[in-house]
Amino acid sequence: MPAILYIKASPRGPRSHSIAVADAFLEAYQEANPQYLVTTRNLFEDDLPPFDGPTLQAKYNVLHGLTHDPAQQRAWQQVKRYVDELKDCARIVMAVPMWNFSLPYRLKHYIDLVVQPGLSFGVNEDGAFGLIPDKPVFIAYASGGAYPPGSGAAVMDHQKPYLEMILGYMGLKDVRSVRVEATLSSDAQVEESRSGAIAKAREMAKDF
């Protein structure tokens, strides 16, 4: 059975705008594609392994062609489990709020775990290349402000540009997204933005 990996990067549960949009997208997609199994990885509930000394040294050993000692090998196998999950799924859906103009720290932790030499990217004479097979990725973004391209505020957006760059670095280039903007505005404006994003997400689910 093909799998959708659903990565939740918000701790706000039903109050989360990004989760509401991602949930609506998944609901619409599964209505038309019931054969897909959803595996949810809630980054604020999962016990992510630390990116500590043994893991970091294991990474450097790979970069320098060295072998792992037992502690490094155990740490590397934990990392590999998360990378394999990205490789094995057929689709990826993400719910991502903006924190301090960037990503929640738990999502950054997850990224630091999965962006690894020999597992999710390789390097040759032409530079780095992704090792995760490309597949559709849908991202529901939410942000307290609005950062339209070409505006003065766009330079402050380190959420969408960074996340989509690092996904592409691993080989995931087929990224589609919707954003609920200005969530710190009036209730009416927020509802309009959220409702519009949900409607757009449901429409996008038809071609995913």
The radius of gyration over CA amounts to 18 Å
Number of strands: 7
Strand order, largest beta sheet: 2-1-3-6-7
| Tally of DSSP helical segments | 6
Relative strand content: 15-25%
C-alpha geometry: globular
CATH topology: Rossmann fold
Portion in helices: 40-55%
Order of H and E elements: EHEHHEHEEEHEH
Total number of distinct structural domains? 1
Parts with pLDDT < 50 across at least 5 consecutive residues: none
**Cα separation of the termini:** 17 Å
Structural overview:
The radius of gyration is 18 Å and the shape is globular. The longest helix is centred in the middle third of the chain and has 19 residues. Helix content is 40%, strand content 19%. The protein has a single domain, classed as Flavodoxin domain (Rossmann fold). By secondary structure, it is an alpha/beta fold. A five-stranded parallel sheet has the order 2-1-3-6-7, sandwiched between helices.
Notable traits:
alpha/beta; 208 residues; Rossmann fold; single chain; five-stranded parallel beta sheet
Summed up, what is this model?
Helix content is 40%, strand content 19%.
How would you summarize the topology of this molecule?
Blueprint: E1 3-8, H1 17-32, E2 37-42, H2 53-63, H3 70-88, E3 91-97, H4 105-114, E4 121-124, E5 127-130, E6 137-142, H5 160-169, E7 175-180, H6 187-204
Parallel strand pairs: 1-2, 1-3, 3-6, 6-7
Antiparallel strand pairs: 4-5
Helix pairs in contact: 1-6, 2-3
